[in-house]
Amino acid sequence: MVVHIVMFKFQEEHKTANLEKAKEMLENLMGKVPTLLSMEVGLNFAEEERAMDLSIVTTFADKEGLQEYAVHPEHLKVVAFIKSVVAYSKVVDYEKN
């Protein structure tokens, strides 16, 4: 199994609305991307300076499934929106036994 985690820091302009839209768009990927086994989307409540605003934890059967997700047209729509409203993001991918 492959776990894909991404954390996003959103731009301040329209931040709350953009967070909600991104969360909804991400959650709507379940059932649309065949290789996406699970997705958890979390909105941050920590007030620390190092805190990120939104995180996703997704799982795939294998690395190929993650690659198929990365280029899936529905996922690319979400990526385009998120890229337009985030300051930066961080990612971790790992294999889980």
Series of H and E elements: EHEEHHE
Give the uncertain stretches in residue-range form.
none
Structural class: alpha+beta
- Overall mean pLDDT stands at 97
Give the termini distance in whole angstroms: 6 Å
- Shape descriptor reads globular
Helix amount, in percent?
Answer: 25-40%
The helix count comes to: 3
How can the largest sheet be summarized? 4 strands, antiparallel
What strand line-up does the widest sheet have? 2-3-1-4
Strand portion, in percent?
A: 25-35%
Question: Rg, please?
Answer: 13 Å
What's the oligomerization state?
Answer: single chain
Q: Layout of helices and strands, plus pairs?
A:
Layout: E1 2-10, H1 15-27, E2 38-43, E3 54-60, H2 63-71, H3 73-85, E4 86-95
Antiparallel strand pairs: 1-3, 1-4, 2-3
Helix pairs in contact: 1-3
Q: What would you say this structure looks like, in words?
A:
The protein is of the alpha+beta class and 97 residues long. It contains three helices and four strands, in the order E-H-E-E-H-H-E. The protein has helices spanning 15-27, 63-71, 73-85, and strands spanning 2-10, 38-43, 54-60, 86-95. Strands 2-3-1-4 form a four-stranded antiparallel beta sheet. The mean pLDDT is 97.
